Amino acid sequence: MSRILTVAGAQLGPIERDESRASVVKRLLDLMRRANDRGADVIVYPELALTTFFPRWAIEDQAEVDSFFEREMPGPETAVLFDEAKKLGIGFHLGYAELIEEDGILHRYNTAILIDKAGNTVGKYRKIHLPGHAEIEPERQFQHLEKRFFEVGNLGFKVWNTMGGKMGVLICNDRRWPEAFRVLGLQGVEMVMIGYNTPTLNGLMFEPPHLRSFHNRLSMQAGAYQNATWVVGVAKAGNEGDVDMMGESAIVAPTGEVVALCSTLEDELMIADCDLDAGRYLKDTTFKFSAHRRPEHYGLIVETTGEVEPR
Ligand code: CDV
């Protein structure tokens, strides 16, 4: 018997720096209603879906940086999204900048949450692989200040049993790191949701745009196949803040095949009926980790620091 989860990926076109939360949330609601009309069980929005991709700007005023963060979730401007999802009975994944006070200290994370069809928050992930740089580098065509604006996530890579399957979340740059996928794979993940903001240019040195696209697909397709999991990769696309952002949002099957693909650089829905059992034969054969995976013979000692030393 198959376990079908109908999944919508809600690619977003550009969000300009001065676009209000209310305006963005209206766009998210429109996509949610359309996804619901098309029978989706869950809708996946991109990384930092509520604002422009603010790490591209050399913003030095902390109050201005913080204006891109959410202090509560749901908050006054996002509650309507939660209410509508609950009313429709649709789950959702939302990426946003999280500002939280813990033990009297303010922390800032690049976060994504997963909400089930009944409106419960079932998972939260804080981005671990933060790309870019911490100091403003004027020689760059545009900044990528994730290392300045965010702390490294402290929740690990988790898998949640929800919506009939084992769900995991990665955020953007995480998709390029096989170990991020593998930690989810080792927990038997069946679907990985990934929001991303990826410029079509490197920003520091020349890199052919076609390679940037290829590496996006390669990372998601390899992550899917090698862990026998669905991958739902959803972009913020188009010319935002004068930087061209890659679209090419895709739903990838556990075989590594792309089954749905966005074709514009605008707000666009892609939908697929995902059989959560589709990766079962790979998990039982080629990627039966318990039978074939042999980390004790890899010839490396992985220290707890993360450093790797030859044996
Ligand atoms: N938001 C990101 O993490 N973007 C990176 C860029 C900087 C390469 C990515 O891996 O797509």
| Relative helix content | 10-25%
Structural class: alpha/beta
Give average pLDDT, whole number: 96
Per CATH, the architecture is 4-Layer Sandwich
**The CATH H-level homologous superfamily:** Carbon-nitrogen hydrolase
- Using the coordinates shown, work out and report the CATH topology: Nitrilase/N-carbamoyl-D-aminoacid amidohydrolase
In terms of per-residue confidence, which ranges show pLDDT below 50 for 5 or more consecutive residues? none
| Anisotropy-based shape | globular
Count of alpha/pi helices: 8
Main sheet properties: 6 strands, mixed
- Distinct ligand kinds: 3-methyl-2-ureido-butyric acid
What Rg do the Cα atoms give?
19 Å
Query: Can you write the helix and strand succession as a string?
Result: EHEHHEEEHEEHEHEEEEEEHHEE
Number of distinct beta strands: 16
> Please, how many domains?
1
Class in CATH?
Answer: Alpha Beta
Describe, in plain words, how this protein is organized in 3D.
- The chain has one domain (4-310): Carbon-nitrogen hydrolase (Nitrilase/N-carbamoyl-D-aminoacid amidohydrolase, 4-Layer Sandwich), CATH 3.60.110.
- The chain is an alpha/beta fold.
- It is globular, with a radius of gyration of 19 Å.
- The chain has helices at residues 21-37, 62-66, 79-88, 146-149, 178-185, 209-227, 280-284, 289-292, and strands at 4-11, 42-44, 91-102, 105-115, 121-126, 159-162, 165-171, 191-196, 230-235, 238-240, 243-245, 250-252, 258-261, 268-275, 300-302, 308-310.
- 3-methyl-2-ureido-butyric acid binds at residues 47, 131-132, 144, 172-173, 176, 196-198.
